[in-house]
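INPUT
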Amino acid sequence: DTEVTQTPKHLVMGMTNKKSLKCEQHMGHRAMYWYKQKAKKPPELMFVYSYEKLSINESVPSRFSPECPNSSLLNLHLHALQPEDSALYLCASSRGQGGSGANVLTFGAGSRLTVL
Amino acid sequence: KNQVEQSPQSLIILEGKNCTLQCNYTVSPFSNLRWYKQDTGRGPVSLTIMTFSENTKSNGRYTATLDADTKQSSLHITASQLSDSASYICVVTYSGGYNKLIFGAGTRLAVHP
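OUTPUT
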């Protein structure tokens, strides 16, 4: 299994809703990432988990709350979002967090979020 | 400032033709350079990855080159197909600190029949 699976593919939520995005990989990767991508822009790093511990938070607002229940799963909990948070949210994983060539990121297909 | 710039922003070619996409970077120190292909509404897929000591790497009809002295890379697509229509993103790994990926804005390629 060489895939990163993200659910749901599409999500529409109001500003007062609480929802979650889910990501799963079974490649034995120990680093997992959340990226946010606006239309026609490159992905922007949000969070990095390494060995199930949060290692990087790129100053993301607290209305986004990541969680890594185990080495295969990564969640992104959403609460009180703003319309400008509408974007494609990409999950990725890699063997390790280091920047070496061995740690190529494998991306999921993304979750398209619309905040009304 | 660590930056990755890609050109052109967009490109239209006819099916069967070749094309070359450019990537210039100012990232230093750098660990490796990657090219990703991203279909609309999908996640990026890795095409090639090169360290500073590698000059060229191929993946089927895709050939990437790297000149670490001039800090330039190119992605050459041979005999283009309609399925090559996508955004191509150049990503450089900044190795000072925690090995951060610096993304280019991408080149949007459209292959027409």
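end of record. The first strand of chain B starts at residue 4 and ends at 7.
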